[in-house]
Design brief:
14 helices; globular
Amino acid sequence: MRVLHLVADGGPSAASKQLRWLTSTGLVESRVVAISAPCGQLTIKPDLARASRRLFDWPFVRRLRALVREFQPAVVHAWDIAPSAAAFWTRVAGHRGRLIVSCRRIAADQALLGPTLARRWGVRIDRVVVPAEPFADVLSSQFPGSAVTVVPDVLADETSTPALANLRQQLGLPESARLVFCAAPFDVTSALRDLIWSIDLLRVIRDDVHLALVGHGPWDSRLRHFSQTIGTGRNVHFLGRRDSLAPWLAQADIYAQPGYCFTPPLAMLEAIATGRPVIAADSPGIRQVVENETSARLIPWGDRAALAREINRLLDQPELARQLAATAKQRFPADHAPAQMRQAYEQLYAGIAQH
């Protein structure tokens, strides 16, 4: 089967990691198209990418149409792109086959507009793929004409990733500095302001806590300004977009996930696999993989004081932190293994081909 994959820009993201693993399996014949101009580090190299940031890039559209005519994909698979945008680019490409949309996060307006705009453009979204059951329940009512399928994230083997130089030295910190790590989109849903605020609260009782943030997004400049305004500029470190997190996680003391999640964040799964203790906002996606007090510390969403208190507790009680990390790793769901994921995608594409 031939599948044309649509991605945002191919840069570091959970969706790009999943697609990179899938294309490496050789399960289907694939071509990858980035609908935005790539910038910086790439997780997956696209076969075709926009070279311009103009609203409508006619040379890119012509190349996209030529690729579709030559490759003749049976399926277009859009990864972490708004359903309305996936339908739009499918229509622009001249594809008349099946459309799969993989969603990790989606705003309410995108969920409502996606099916409506798709129908207006004469495009049917045949399958919506999500990483967890709670998110499937949310989207089922929004996509009544599409089957919602759960395919959990795969945790690819990153043992071959080169070791990272001492992160504390890179940041100009003493070896005694305690590192809290978080990787998330820089937007309102990730609640990173709460995490930065909790670091500010901790500075009252200890001066050795530092926060390392990995990611990018529309709130990038806003978060940096907020950190400087409240005086945590020397304690909060913005590391940008990163592909492999394992070398960074190995040097962290705690992984924090303050946002409300309907799907387990891939970075949190990687933290558990690396043996890092987790503090997270209590939400459906988080409860898919950890339990409060036995394998993680869960706090009420938006409770900055509780977040600061739990960070301080795990830093002061290393044995508790090790116990939580060990239990979470031991209970880690087996359905994130590559073999299970390959089987899930085989069934997904086979089911699409039969309709």
